[in-house]
Amino acid sequence: MDIRKAEPENAVREHGLDLALLQPWPGLNAPFRGAWCILRPGDVSDTHSHHEREMFIALSGRGEVVCNGRRHALAAGDIALMKAGTEHHVVNEHGEDFSYYAIWWGRSMSADFLAEELRRDGGEPTGAEPAA
Question: Which of 29, 33, 77, 102 is most buried (most C-beta within 10 Å)?
């Protein structure tokens, strides 16, 4: 088992917030990507959309996710799921940090994951029966 500790000193300032990407993580092959995100009081992340689906898992504090112009409150323990193509950004108008984990995935990530698994397994899908 591997455990990756929260390391706030390794967060970088990008896209209007502090973040630490899940990858690179030696040995991790996953059909998704992720980032630990921290919005300081007054932070507003960059508005964007992408072809991947995305999920936010609120860890601490409070914030709002603005999706296609509509605000949605999030607090520790809440989960938000966005469809591909949803224009969104995150706002922290509270007096404490808002921390969440963002996970995003799409077809190309799934294909990359499966290709790497096949390569590691010598070309045979995990759990697959040998060809007759």
Answer: 102
Q: Which residues of the chain have pLDDT under 50?
A: 130-132
- Which one, of 97, 92, 10, lies nearest residue 44 by Cα? 92
Identify the sign of the CA torsion 105, 91, 21, 76: negative
Q: How far is CA 90 from the centre of its chain?
A: 13
pLDDT of residue 25: 84
Among candidate residues 61, 57, 65, the one with its CA nearest the CA of residue 36: 57
Tell me the whole-structure pTM to 2 decimals: 0.85
| Residue closest to 79 by CA, chosen among 49, 103, 115, 50 | 103
- Here the tokens at position 17 are 């917030």
Judge residue 28's burial from the number of C-beta atoms within 10 Å of its C-beta, 0-12 exposed, 13-18 middle, 19 or more buried. Answer: exposed
Closest CA to 99 of 35, 24, 29, 26: 35
